[in-house]
Design a protein that fits this description.
This protein is mainly alpha-helical. It has 21 helices and two strands.
Length: 511
Amino acid sequence: MDFSTQVATQLNVGATLPEIIVTITLLLVIIIDLISGRKVAVPLAYFSVVGLLASVVALAFQWNRTNVDSFLGAFTADNLSIVFRAIVALSTALTILMSIAYIQNTGTSLAEFVGILLTATLGGMLLSGASELVMIFVSLEMLSISSYLMTGYMKRDARSNEAALKYLLIGAASSAIFLYGSSLLYGLSGGKTNINEIAATVPAAGGIESLALAIALVFMVAGIAFKISAVPFHQWTPDVYEGSPTPVVAFLSVGSKAAGFAIAVRLLVTVFAPLEQQWHFIFTALAILSMVLGNVVALAQTSMKRMLAYSSIGQAGFIMIGLVAGTEAGYSSVIFYLFLYLFMNLGAFACVILFSLRTGTDKISDYAGLYQKDPLLTLGLSLCLLSLGGIPPLAGFFGKIYIFWAGWQAGLYSLVFIGLITSVISIYYYIRVVKMMVVKEPQEMSEAVKNYPPIRWNLTGMRPIQVSLIFLIIATSLLGILSNPVVEIANQSVASSNILKPPITSAYLDF
């Protein structure tokens, strides 16, 4: 083998073809916007959606590939990373469709917003497959810095500026903590940065008795917990969700969270395998705190976006049950739930965006009597909220069933019981919104609904956000009942992943 062939084999650029497609799309959006200005902003947004869907197709062609390592082992394109990267890319494509009317209504540049969002997407996709400390940190910062920019994108809005500043300060501290934990791993492994090589050398450097390894675990878990909005690292979430542009919140609640769970699985199962009991205990505590605080505090919220913020914290707690289970069934349930969460949560935010565009408010009380003016929007928001609460036969019900069953199989009886109780609590505040929209009599309508403009839902008059909402509603309604293919993909992605070898003795999700 000559030198050039050897270099090409070691780099294996083809493994990152989906990320290359996103990068080319990003560059074209920036260049064309600079040349043509705002008159091509909407076509550029559609072009970005096409590029993201093309990257998802490229991910599908990577399924079950044997040569998955890329860039000298810094990136891994195995089945596990493929599903997380697909979730990030799909969440961005739907977010762009949801954001076109919203961003245009604010008077800011749509193409610039799409460019920043694509940069965050690229960071999230790279983070989902990163298997080297430098790659992990660079990807994490690409995702984080782009998120800060999007949070403060409405420069003349004081709440947006405040949210961005809070997010930046807490995020910078979180990144520094995560980086310090990475430096400890670098030192313990004798100067290695590949997580598989670290996993092979760290036990010899002290194993489970190593205080430095335990400190590295705590610091890196803190960084991950910030990214997934787990209590007590959730302080930024309510303020950022309330003050940021709503499409940004939609992406942070799904795309950013999925990337956080992806790197959590990869790091915990490989590098911190000697401290399995310790990180199980930590994530058990995080899961309990997130489920209890997120769902209880959501009861008192008067803003729809703040309610969905605390709901997102509670949902992270449910997902962590699968992570704590530490079995193939557990990790499969994490992937399955995140995939369903993509549709039901983005569907809820699409409804919030449509309502705020027409009324200029996001107060829960202002939704009173909405059914009288916009039955289809009421139906869509009701289905998405009930799915988040786990009402059968919607997608969220099956997602929670799989999560709780995986926890029960692993013997996490108390954790599953707490999850069931807090899930019942969540149903109350979701149904409260549904009741507000449906039960109120015409004379009890809010002023916002009374002034609600006429709505066109015919095929020729629908905007991109309405098209995306219909798609999200259909997916939320049917994916639970037709979940077998998704479950099979989740099971296969975990079973075929190199990070779980030797195989863990546990049944797959099987019903």
